[in-house]
Structures are given as C-alpha cells and as structure tokens.
Design goal:
With about 1050 residues, this protein is of the alpha+beta class. Among the domains are: about 1-35 and about 325-485, Multidrug efflux transporter AcrB transmembrane domain (Multidrug efflux transporter AcrB transmembrane fold, Up-down Bundle); about 40-130, Alpha-Beta Plaits (2-Layer Sandwich), CATH 3.30.70.1430; about 500-550 and about 880-1015, Multidrug efflux transporter AcrB transmembrane fold (Up-down Bundle), CATH 1.20.1640.10; about 560-660, 2-Layer Sandwich (Alpha-Beta Plaits). About 55% of the residues lie in helices and about 20% in strands. Helix 26 runs parallel beside helix 29. It comes from Candidatus Kentrum sp. FW.
C-alpha cells in the first residue's frame, strides 16, 4: 500500500483533503462544554412528605421503596435518606446495566406500591444527571419579591425561547401560596373549626368537568366550576349560611394573604440586595459557547428595550464558557507556535521542504481525531479534557513523520530517486508502526481506570490515540508522496553555506566529536555507567521518599470562585440562619477590602457576591473574584483570610469553604448496623478514637443532628372525652402546618391554598398550649387540659445503605503530622476492639484514602497489563525474548525524569501525574525501539557487536533527539500556562515532557550498554559451557583410561 500511494500522489492528496474536509465538518458539529458530561449511573426516587418526623418517613415510605426494588437486577447499591420533609432513595447501577431499562423497572415497582401515607406527594423517579452551569443571572433590587419573580419568569421564557438553551433553573424563587389564616377566637365566635373553613373553600373554589352533551351537529361540554385565583375572589366565598338567610363570607372571619410559602424559607441576595437568580444549565446536548452567546443577546435586548423597571438591575456572572474559549484559543495558539517551532527545528536539521510537509501532518492528524470524536464513533465533545489530548498530542504527532522524513532525507541525499524514497519509508515503517501501537496501548489504558476518573480523563487519552492512528496513516501513505524528489533536483547541494547546512554541520561535529566518543567511553565502562544510571534512578525515587516532591491524591486546583457552604444545627431557628448568612456576607466584603488595600489593587477584588438561603438551615455564599486580581490575590489567599475572620457563629453545625476542584473528604467512615441506634453507638466510640490520633482534625459528623420534639399524649380527661393520640396529631397539624385545601394553576406557577392559624399564634409553646381542641362530642377545650407533653430529642435525618442503617464521620488530616493512609491503618488495627463491644457494626472506608487505594490498585493492574501487551508486541515483531526487555528498561528512568520535572515546576505528584506516567511508557519505548531495530539490521553485516551498536546509535541519534525535542517543545506552552484550566493538565504534561526528554538521553546511553552487557552475559555463559564441556570430556577420558 505504501508503494501504491507513492506511485499515485493524487490519491495521497485526495486522502489528505478528504480527512481535512471531514474533520472541519465534524468540528463544526461537535458540542462545546467545559468538562465532559459523565453518563448517569444513578436513579433517584424522591417523595415529598411533610410528616415532621424522619422516623415516619423511613418506616412509611423509604422501607417500602427499598422492599419494592430489592430483587431487581442491575443494582449495585441502594442508599436512602429520610427526613422530616420526605424520603430520597438513590440507586446506583452496576457497570453493565442499561440505565433506561432500570429506570422503567424501578418506576413500575414504585408506582405499584400501596399504602403510601396520606399527604405524601407522588414519587418522582429519574436518572441522576450531572449538571454543569453555563452562567448565572440575577435580577436584583430593593423592590417587592413578587415583581422580581414575575420579571424572572419573563426572562426565563425569553431565554428558553432560544434554540440553544434548554434548561434554566430558578434560585431563590419562592413558592406562591394563598394563606387563609383564621384566629381561634373568631372560629369559636362563629361556631366553626379549621376543617369547616377548609371544606367551604374546597366546595366553592374548584374546576370540575361534569360531562358532555353530544348532539348530531355539535358537542357541548358541561361544567360546574367556580375557580378562584386571587385573594379578593376567595374573600367572597360563603363559609356558612345563617338561619336568617344571611351568609358568612370568608373575608369576615379570615385574613387572606396572597404571598409566598414560608416552608421552607428561601431567599437570594445579590450584591447585597434582594434578588431572584437564574442558572443556565448545560445538558448532554448543549453547546456552552452557543448558550452563552444567546443568553447575552437576550440580556442585551432587555437592557436596550428598557424592560427593567426602576430600581431593578441585571447581573450576569460566572461565565464558564470563558474556560473552554481560552482553552480553544490556547490550542490554536499552541498549534501555530508548535508548527512554527517544528518547521524551524526541522529546517535546521533536515531541509525546509521536509520540515514543511512534516508539519502539515499536524492538522491532518487533528482533523482525523475530530472525525473520530463524532457521535458515530466516540461521541465526545470539545471540552477541557479532550482539548488537552490535542495539546499533548501536538508534540508527539510529528514523531512518526520526523522519523520517516529523516529516513527519506538521508536516502535522498545519497540518491534522489523514488526508489530511495520508498526505501527510506520501508526502513522505519515497522518500528514506527509498533512504536505507535505501544503508545496507543499506553494512552488508551487510562480510559479503563477505576470509576469516574477513567471516564473523565479517558477522553484525553482516546483523543491522543485517535491522533496517533491518523499520524501513522499520514506518515506512511501521505507524507512519502510529498517528499518524492522533484524533477531536476540534485543531491543535497554542498556549495551553498546556508543556516541549515551550518546547523547540520555543527550537529555532525557534535555527533562525531562528542556523542560517539562519549558513548564509546560509556560502553568501555559499561558496568560503572549502569551503576551511575541506577544511582540516578534511586535519586529520583528519593525525591518522593524524602518529601522533596510532595505526594497528594488530587492537587488543589483553584476553582476561580469561593463558595461557603453553611449547615446549621437542626434546632437552630431560621432567624439564626439568616443572621449567619448576613455575617458571612459582611465578613466577605470586609476581607476583600482588606486584601485589596494590602496589595494596592485599584479594581475591586470581588466582582459578584450571591447569598442563597436554600431552606431554614442550609445555603451558600458565593464570592467571585476578579480575574484581573487573581494573580495578586488567589482564591486560596481569600479563603484563608475569610476563614480566619468569620469567627464563631451561633447555632452553626458546619461551615465549609470550597475553592478548588478536589471534592473528596480526606477521611470518611461509614458505620452500618441493623438499627440506627446501634450505628450511632458505634460511631460515638469510633469518634473518640479518632480524636486521640495526632493530626486528625475538623471531625464532621451528624451525631448531634437531633431536634427537640414534644410528643403529645391524651390525659385521662382527654381520653374520657373521646380524644385519641391520632386526634391530637391531626388537629395540631391542621392548626400549625395547615390544611392544603387545593392547588390552582396561575400562569406557570402552581399555587397552594392553605388554611391555618395566624403566624403570631404559632410561634411559642404558650401558643401551643393555648390552642383549642375539638372533641368527638363537639366540645371545644384547651389543649393543656386534655394533653400532656413528653420531651425527647429525635434525629432529623436517617440514612440507610443496602437496607442497613448508616451513619458517617468525615475528617481532615494535617499531612505534616500524619497521612490519610496512616490514619486508616490505625483504625483498621482498632476495629477488632470496636467489634468486641459492638459486633453488629460494620465500618466501611471512603473519602480520599479509599479512592486513592482503589485507584492505585486499578492503576497497578493497568500498568502490568500495558507492560505485558507492549512486551508481547515487541517480542512478536523482533522475534526475540530478550530484546524487548532492553527496550523497556528505559521506562524506570523515564519516570525519574518525570519526578525531576515535578521538582523543577514545584508540582506535587498526584493521580494526574500518574496518568502522564502511563502515557510516558508508550512514548519512551519508541526511541529505544528505533535504536534496537537498526542495531539488529546492522549486526549481521558487521563482525563486531560494538561497531553495530555505535553505527546504529550514530544513524538514529538525530531522529531520536528530534522526536523527543518536538514532544517537549509541544508541551512547553501548557506547562508555562498560569491559568486555572492549565492547572488541571500540568502534572500529566510535566510527567510526559520531562520523562521523554530525560528518557531520550538515557536511551542513547542505556540501550547500547545493555546490548553490550547482554553480549557479555551470553559470552560468559558460553565460556562456562565450554569449561563444563571440557571438564566433562576430561572426566570421560579418565574413565575410559
């Protein structure tokens, strides 16, 4: 096939043009997003149930759902959470299960459940998709909440009217609610109960279709309805007709409010003002750059047309599209710089025409990879991870072309004929093909790393593999046709002293006067040289053991945004929660002002501040820092100062400041037991042990997640009057939580109509005991006369895993004192003692330490598999067992180069660094393979192994240096990139760049001396065999004599 394309340059050009055209078309169709969307692996069943008791939700809902789905296939784990407001069951599927099928099966089982408690909402079953934010929009100002919500609804409709925007979520959008509040005094004055009022509203405000009247020529729908939508309409509802014929209207006995639900209480502030937020969400079909552009068009239109009333502004912030736009810009810039560098470099060593056509291979390979990324093959998007694949591949893609081009150029210098061109290609076709395959095997293996890490970073590795496939096609079928000697061209001219010729002359001088003599000396003292290389390898490992290169599981990569997650104690009131958020917000502004003054910044440090109280106990405060100031004040600087100045907050359970992409807790322990009480008891013991371990701090647990509860029971008098516990519970719920009489649709909002006591009658225990209770006989009595209260504390939330009650402990570790792994080992040693006192408790490990263990185990298996596959490929092609071991001997020293690269750039060695090391395995083998293959070809024609080794090294030194330097140069822009998105990729880039660069030098020395040492061993074995033979022969001679 190589010869056919060489004889048909038109076919080669058409193949190149076809790849480029299809690649451009594919690029225009590919979605763009910040990070790849991971395929959903979980199904969530959620049921809203305002029972006020986590135990009731667990017993009446959660256990029924667990029981209904327990025998379904394809389920790996079932986790449930029961709280005062309902139940959530999360089902994680097995690796090979069909998610859509599982969702349908779960939905069918859940819908078939009978006996759900009255008042529970319909179960919602859906796949748990990951959601990425495109940008945030806030409508804000000191205006009524209703105005902000109506504007937000209109803006949301305009945004959804754009074809590229499919999902827009509200933040701080309060649920509209019509509240009918009736004072107990008025109820008694008119002889009414809350139930009477609720029934009256239900009777007089309804929408009901009664049927159809069908005539021969028409159909008439019959209805009897009286819908009410506004509070004025509800005020005219007749509650009761008096004996004299007069009517008691609802407005006469009740206060009607058209407002918002107070359960849960939620609000948003933006830039210190009341706000309603909109979050534009990226789904699996969205293009984030297109979404952002369309959102900006809508916002510009609103501003231009004056749609905002006085006192209302729009804020738009946290544009995530900027990350991928900057990455694409970096890719194009790095690509252009890389091509220029390659052309210049190759022009100096080879000639301009060879350099140009080698560089043209880059866009061809990229276009081929873009074709592979399409929906019909890989189904990838253009994102931060896949574009990293292109950046990494940039320096590697020219390797094959450089080797082929250099081989062709060498032959054409001697004989500028098509036959010489074909010979030049065939000379290196097999080693470059096998080298490409080994590199592809190494890179592709990253996609099979355990869990989401493999799915996430597998995209970059498969993109590199796709680039390598098209690199092999381009270098073998397209490039040779472009390097055919032109008509009338003579051998390389010697009379013109060009820059390239001078450089080549100097390179030849370097090779003759420095490289070859140095290699000869290394061969002469090969055992000393081997010991020296071994010492360098041990020195590299010492960088880790001595702590000069820190080890971390996942590096702290700044997020670009500081957000404070607040979780209050379950018995903290909403007032305490509001005070906490206001304090954190004020502290954030003051922290920014102090840092701005200290660093002499002229522009504000904070560009956006949003506070979102999601419910009575939880919420977030987001601080967006100016990108112009991020070099002077990082998110880490701001976070440290903020944490220091926040101080103590009354009623706070936990406060977490997030500023990086590392999301796993360093330590996490799950304690499982048959009952919740048993799990809690085990947790208390384990918690005390953890407190005794030096270096363990910030222990986070829900052992105190309890709230005070008054359990009411009828007194003897109450029972005598016919009251039961159920009667008390029902009337208490009606009075304090209220009757949900009906729901009406008003525009896009579903509005609940609720009847209950006024708010000022539901605030204290005095109000509770002053409540009036209706007995079955119709009497109205004070609650305190017919009921008594039992004080107790109950858990606010209950968790179950695979049917067992579960509780958790999270902790951080001071790594200057100990490590997560050391703490886990200590707890493992302590477990037998725990099990002696609590045999029913099982402890599972999670967090960073467990993820690290699973990933390291997965990587170990993958590395072993990669090495076996590479060895097999090399052994089959070389038809030798020992030669592959010589080739693969450069891998450990390549890893040493990766460690020195981390030291030079001040990077910790992390899981991302290991991905670069895996990729490095395939790359460093290529150079060794070129050298060994050339040696094996030269060996039969030379009498001395030493001469064959030296000649092979002399012939391949230029190609080996070129491939390594171009790989390193291609990664320089990425390693020098100070941006946040570059921080994700620096560890792997440093491993690959310095491993290749260091491995190249090692290859040119280590492989020749190992060949010579192997020959020494062979000769030694031969001499020993001859000695044994001679001794055996002498012995036989003596016996015969």
């Amino acid at each position: 096939m190589i010869a056919w394309f060489l004889r048909n340059p038109v076919a080669a050009n058409l193949l190149m043009i076809g790849i480029l055209v299809l690649g451009v078309r594919s690029a225009l169709e590919l979605r763009r997003e910040v990070f790849p969307q991971l395929p959903p692996s979980e199904v969530t069943v959620s049921v809203l149930y305002d029972s006020g008791s986590a135990r009731q939700a667990e017993e009446n809902i959660t256990r029924k759902i667990e029981q209904a789905i327990k025998d379904l296939s394809g389920i790996e784990e079932v986790t449930s959470s029961s709280s005062r407001t309902g139940s959530t069951v999360t089902i994680r599927k097995t690796y090979d299960a069909d998610l859509d099928k599982l969702v349908n099966e779960i939905k069918a089982r859940v819908d078939a459940i009978t006996g759900m408690p009255k008042g529970a909402e319909r179960p919602m079953v859906e796949a748990e998709n990951s959601k990425q934010t495109a940008l945030h929009i806030n409508l804000y100002g000191e205006v009524p909440q209703g105005l902000l919500q109506s504007l937000a609804s209109a803006l949301r409709e305009d945004l959804l009217g754009k074809s590229g925007i499919t999902t827009v979520e509200f933040q701080g959008y309060k649920t509209p609610e019509i509240t009918i509040e009736v004072d107990e005094t008025r109820l008694q004055a008119h002889g009414l109960s809350l139930r009477d009022v609720s029934d009256a509203v239900a009777r007089e405000s309804m929408v009901e279709v009664s049927g159809e009247l069908r005539a021969e020529d028409t159909i008439v729908q019959l209805t009897a309805d009286a819908p009410r939508y506004r509070k004025e309409e509800f005020a005219h509802i007749t509650v009761r007709k008096n004996p004299g014929g007069s009517e008691l209207k609802l407005g006469e006995v009740a206060t009607i409010t058209d407002g918002f639900s107070s359960s849960p209480r939620t609000w948003v502030r933006y830039q210190g003002k009341r706000s309603v937020g909109l979050r534009i969400v990226v789904d699996e079909h969205s293009d984030i750059i297109r979404m952002t552009r369309e959102a900006r068009e809508v916002l510009d239109d609103w501003r231009a047309q004056g749609k905002l009333p006085e006192g209302v502004d729009i804020g738009d912030w946290w544009y995530r599209s900027q990350l991928i736009e900057s990455r694409l810009g970096a890719l194009f810039f790095n690509g252009a710089v890389g091509i220029i560098l390659v052309i210049v470099l190759l022009s100096l060593v080879l000639e301009a025409r060879v350099a140009f056509w080698v560089s043209v291979g880059l866009p061809v390979c990229f276009a081929g990879a873009l074709i592979a990324m399409g929906d019909t093959i890989l189904g990838f998007s253009i994102n931060q991870i896949s574009t990293f694949g292109f950046i990494v591949a940039m320096g590697m893609l020219v390797d094959d072309a450089v080797v082929v081009g250099e081989s062709i150029h060498t032959r054409q210098v001697l004989s500028p004929t098509p036959e010489a061109t074909l010979e030049g290609v065939r000379q290196v076709a097999m080693p470059t093909l096998i080298g490409g395959l080994t590199t592809m095997v190494a890179f592709s293996s990253i996609a099979f790393v355990f869990g989401n890490f493999g799915k996430f970073y597998g995209q970059f590795s498969l993109v590199v593999a796709a680039c390598l496939i098209f690199s092999m096609i381009e270098s073998k079928l397209i490039l040779p046709a472009h390097l055919l000697p032109r008509r009338g061209a003579a051998a390389f001219p010697s009379h013109r002293r060009t820059i390239a010729q001078r450089f080549q002359a100097r390179f030849e001088t370097f090779k003759t006067n420095l490289f070859l003599p140095g290699l000869q000396r290394a061969i002469d003292y090969r055992y000393a040289t081997l010991l020296l290389l071994l010492a360098i390898w041990l020195l590299g490992l010492g960088l880790i053991t001595r702590g000069e290169v820190r080890q971390v599981f996942f590096p702290d990569i700044p997020f670009g945004l500081v957000y404070v997650e607040v979780d209050m104690q379950p018995d903290a009131g909403f007032g305490a929660t509001e005070n906490a958020f206001e304090h954190i917000e004020r502290t954030g502004y003051k922290t920014a002002e102090d840092l701005q003054r200290e660093h002499g910044l002229t522009e504000p440090l904070l560009t956006s501040v949003q506070t979102w109280m999601e419910n009575d106990l939880e919420g977030w405060v987001d601080f967006e820092l100016s990108s112009d100031s991020s070099q002077a004040v990082s998110v880490f600087d701001f976070s440290r100062r903020l944490r220091k100045t926040i101080g103590r907050i009354e009623g706070l359970k936990s406060l977490k400041i997030h500023n990086s992409y590392a999301g796993l807790p360093q330590l996490e322990f799950q304690l499982l037991a048959p009952s919740f009480e048993q799990a809690q008891a085990g947790r208390r013991v384990l918690l005390e042990r953890l407190k005794q371990i030096p270096g363990v701090h910030d222990l986070s647990h829900d052992i105190d997640d309890t709230i005070e509860q008054l359990r009411l029971e009828p007194t003897p008098l109450g029972r005598a009057l016919g009251l039961t516990t159920q009667d008390l519970a029902r009337q208490l719920q009606q009075a304090f939580f209220g009757f949900e009489t009906q729901r009406i649709q008003r525009g896009h909002d579903e509005v609940k109509v609720r009847v209950r006591y006024p708010e000022d009658a539901r605030r204290s225990l005095d109000d509770l005991w002053a409540m009036r209770v209706r007995t079955p006989g119709g009497q109205v009595v004070a609650l305190e006369t017919v009921a008594r209260a039992v004080n107790e504390r109950v858990v606010g939330e209950r968790t179950r895993i695979d049917g067992r009650s579960a509780v958790s402990i999270e902790a951080k570790v001071d790594k200057t004192i100990t490590s997560p792994e050391a703490v886990v080992k200590e707890i493992v040693r302590y477990l037998p003692e725990l099990h002696r006192t609590h045999p029913e408790v099982r402890v599972d490990f999670g967090g960073e330490s467990e993820a690290r263990k699973l990933l390291i185990q997965s990587l170990r298996e993958i590395i072993i598999f990669v090495l076996i596959v590479i060895y097999a490929l090399l052994a089959i092609v070389l038809k030798r067992y020992g030669a592959p071991l010589i080739i693969m001997a450069v891998i450990p020293l390549g890893v040493t180069g990766a460690l020195f690269g981390h030291l030079l750039h001040g990077l910790p060695f992390s899981i991302l660094s290991l991905f670069g090391v895996i990729a490095l395995i395939g790359v460093v083998i290529n150079d060794s393979l070129l050298l060994v293959v050339r040696y094996l070809k030269l060996r039969p024609g030379l009498s001395s192994i030493r001469d064959a080794v030296l000649n092979a090294a002399a012939e391949r030194v230029r190609a080996i240096l070129l491939t390594s330097v171009t790989t390193y140069v291609g990664l320089i822009p990425l390693m020098a990139n100070p941006s946040i998105q570059g921080a994700f990729l620096k560890p792997a880039a440093a491993s690959l760049a310095y491993g290749v660069l260091f491995g190249t030098v090692i290859t040119l020395v280590l492989v020749p001396i190992l060949i010579m040492i192997a020959d020494d061993v062979k000769n030694l074995i031969g001499r020993l065999s001859l000695i044994d033979y001679a001794k055996s022969k002498a012995k036989l001679q003596r016996v015969s004599d």
